[in-house]
Amino acid sequence: MTPDQPKGTSVTQHLVEFVHIRLPAGQEEEYLASRPGAVSAVASAIPGFVAAPVIAKGEDGLWTDVWIYDSVEQAEAA
Predict the structure, then answer these.
(1) Whole-prediction pTM value?
(2) E strand or H helix at 31, and its extent?
(3) pLDDT by residue (tens digit) across 32-74?
(4) Is 47 exposed, middle or buried (CB count within 10 Å of its CB: 0-12, 13-18, 19+)?
(5) Secondary structure of the chain: what % helix, strand, coil (to 5)?
(6) 71-74 long-range contacts, Cβ below 8 Å, gap at least 24?
(7) What is the pLDDT of residues 26-38, one digit of tens each?
């Protein structure tokens, strides 16, 4: 239970995976265009997939892609 959680309620825990990617020059647009299909494929194949809500490019050019699963096992299966 968390400090601000009312008594008698439960907390759902998920595994959040932060994938860091450095894309070769000129491939960012292609990668971003292919991401929705990759997310759909994982959603179809992995029952414990929850969401891939964020992809962001840092100032250093490194991309961070966030994927959420119900468990470690489901993340590893993806």
Answers:
(1) 0.78
(2) helix 28-45
(3) 999 999 999 999 999 999 999 999 999 999 999 999 999 888 8
(4) exposed
(5) 30, 30, 40
(6) 71/15, 72/15, 73/48, 74/15, 74/46, 74/47, 74/48, 74/49
(7) 999 999 999 999 9
> DSSP character for 5?
S
Which amino acid is present at 1?
M
Amino acid at 72: V
Please report, for residues 22, 56, 57, 78, the alpha-carbon distance to residue 15 in angstroms, rounded to integers and kept in the order given: 23, 19, 22, 13
Q: Which residue shows structure tokens 């194949």?
A: 45
pLDDT of 1 over the 70 cut: no
